[in-house]
Amino acid sequence: MAKDGIDTPEDLPQSMKRRSFLGVTGLGLASGILGLGASLQMTSTRALAQGGALEGKDGLDLLNDRPVNAQTPAHLLDDAITPIDRHFVRNNGVVPDDTSAEGWMLTVDGLVDQPMELSIDDLRDQFEVVTMALALECGGNGRAMFDPPASGNQWTYGAIACSEWTGVRLRDVLEAAGVHESVVYTGHYGADGHLSGDPERSPLSRGVPIDKAMTDNVLIAFEMNGEPLHPLNGAPLRLVVPGWPGSCSQKWLTRIELRDQKHDGTKMAAPSYSVPSYPVAPGTDVPLEDFETIHAMPVKSLITHPQDGADVGSEFEVRGHAWAGDRTVQKMEVSSDHGESWQEADLDDPVNDGAWQNWRTTVTVPQSGYYEIWARATDSEGVMQPFAIKWNPKGYLNNSFHKVAVQAEAA
Ligand SMILES: Nc1nc2c(c(=O)[nH]1)N[C@H]1C(S)=C(S)[C@@H](COP(=O)(O)O)O[C@H]1N2
Ligand SMILES: [Mo]
Questions:
Q1: What is the pLDDT of residues 163-184, one digit of tens each?
Q2: In the chain, N or C terminus with fewer CB closer than 10 Å?
Q3: Ligand 1 lined by 88 (C-beta under 6 Å)
Q4: Proximal ligand: closest to the CA of 206
Q5: Does domain 300-408 have CATH number 2.60.40.650?
Q6: More confident residue, 19 or 68
Q7: pTM for the full model?
Q8: Where are the beta strands (DSSP E) in 58-115?
Q9: Whole-angstrom Cα distance, residue 374 to residue 58?
Q10: 4: pLDDT confidence band, cut at 50, 70 and 90?
């Protein structure tokens, strides 16, 4: 990332670049062992955030203020539908000055019968308006735990959210434009500015294979939880492509181009949003031609209660969410004894295709003391989250178990 100067965390102290599991736990912070430096850092960045960079957001931790990147602590993601003020923010560039819906136009062009220019009112009037709960996760969520570290925003757990998005299906709009036989890929364009200030450069322009674009739950969205989009989350118009790296979900959407070859926009090429096509040892320098673009995200889960570092009784509820890219989650398990035994949690079906699934279970511990709660999900193809990180150079796709530490006091 040093190359394009976009999201290199060079200005962050080492303590924030990479912290071990205990280093990021509340318990670690409370007991002042590993986390104190990080704790002070968090406090000051949060205070800074309240000064303006995160207006309209609540409780998020700012990882970078240029561009603005902020994640949500796991315990603040407890709601089934993520409130707007708790939805993480991942920007590659500068938010457009004008994010009002008035006068906003979307161009649909490239290999179509009828190129279109649509206002947001046109979208509402000409297409079926749908509302869906859709999970959005950054491809780099969990990067902070990579060893050796990977450059980029040091997300721990909170670059995931599931809000309710209202908009029109991308498929309906593309069908109205008339997709040529030869189309294999989309190209997405947004109105955000490049950090360099050069108007010719785009901070991000991603695309997806046409089959993914034509999926029922890929939306061009103009509302989030029944309100206009938050400016940091792409107001007034964005794509929501659930199950794939968040980068596919172009914010401040101005144009969708249909192409007869893979898109060549900013951050389409390796190593962006790409992983090696074969397993590599941690720290390997992988040649660019050996990377492949990430498609669906892997199965993953999050514990949203209890909060990491909490005091609990001998019996307490553990709950959270689980999601699995283009698949669903079929099983959710929890351990309170470092994986010696697992108990199955009660797991809800997704409210619609592309939503995360809520789960809960009651954990009973045998005596007072320190416990770690581990969670693991298994997807509809029988693939389970791994215990450990499958290392890759850019720090993507960390779907290893989420763990929270608690101190139990038996009555
Ligand atoms: N135009 C534009 N769209 C964008 C981005 C961006 O920088 N510019 N970031 C992408 C990335 S990497 C992610 S993870 C998601 C994050 O969406 P959010 O900020 O609403 O959480 O937006 C995507 N869409
Ligand atoms: Mo992302």
A1: 999 999 999 999 999 999 999 9
A2: C
A3: yes
A4: 1
A5: yes
A6: 68
A7: 0.90
A8: 61-65, 68-71, 89-90, 105-110
A9: 27
A10: very low
Question: What residue's CA is closest to ligand 1, atom 16?
Answer: 90
Range(s) of the chain covered by CATH 3.90.420.10? 105-137+159-293
Amino acid at 232: L
Residue range 105-137+159-293, CATH number: 3.90.420.10
* pLDDT confidence of residue 170: 99
Hey, what amino acid is at 48?
Answer: L
CB-based burial label for 30 (10 Å; 0-12, 13-18, 19+): middle
Point out the ligand 1 atom lying closest to the alpha carbon of residue 245.
14
Q: Report CA Rg, the chain.
A: 21
Protein residues near ligand 2, an ion, with CB under 5 A: 90, 138, 246-247
- Write the pLDDT tens digit of every residue in 243-272: 999 999 999 999 999 999 999 999 999 999
Instruction: Quote the pLDDT of residue 45.
Output: 47
The Cα–Cα gap between 291 and 276 comes to: 4
